[in-house]
Amino acid sequence: MIGELVPGSVATEWRLDDSEPVTLFPEETALVAKSVEKRQQEFATVRLCARLALGRFGVPAAPLTPGPRGEPRWPTGIAGSMTHCEGYRAAAVARTTDVVSIGIDAEPAGPLPDGVLAVVSLPEERRHLAALDARAPGVSWEKLLFSAKESVFKTWYPLTGRELDFDEAVVEFTPDDEEGRAGTFGARLLVPGPTVGGVPHEHFSGRWLARGGLVITAIVLTR
Fold this sequence. Notes:
alpha+beta, three-stranded antiparallel beta sheet, five-stranded antiparallel beta sheet, 5 helices, about 30% helix, about 30% strand, about 220 residues
């Protein structure tokens, strides 16, 4: 599913469960040695996805360890993103000659826990979600907003090394069809955006879909 949301210059791989055996590098094993089994399994499977996607560019398997904010440290010349949630693990990678940054996120469909929407959204976004829900009530719009903001952060952080709060970007969705099961979204940054190659980026554009009990979002910032 993630492959439907990114251009052809991006390689993707996904899994629905952790049934496939995975051999981690010692550096990776050490990171989750004290974690519960479920965490160890999803950690391993998402790295399997990443290594398979990297292999399409001829990148040899190597440890994928996290940076200070948990972001994966990609091999030189590669931009990428990983996500894992209940029932889905995925990775998306591209060469930095084509892509500046990538952010992907998947979440189980359903409502956010009580009180969370007020924390992760702005008043104008809540009004926007209410209008969307009246049009397409079968989509988990609240969870989709959360996913989109996660994708925004994953795109932002490798370029800035700075935190981005939930109230520092405004997200707006545009459904592609009458059922509202897929479409595009825009994220307008409310703080100065990253400058890449002399070009400031104050707005990120992405794609989303709602299918199979999941909501998935992706942003690919191309050169």
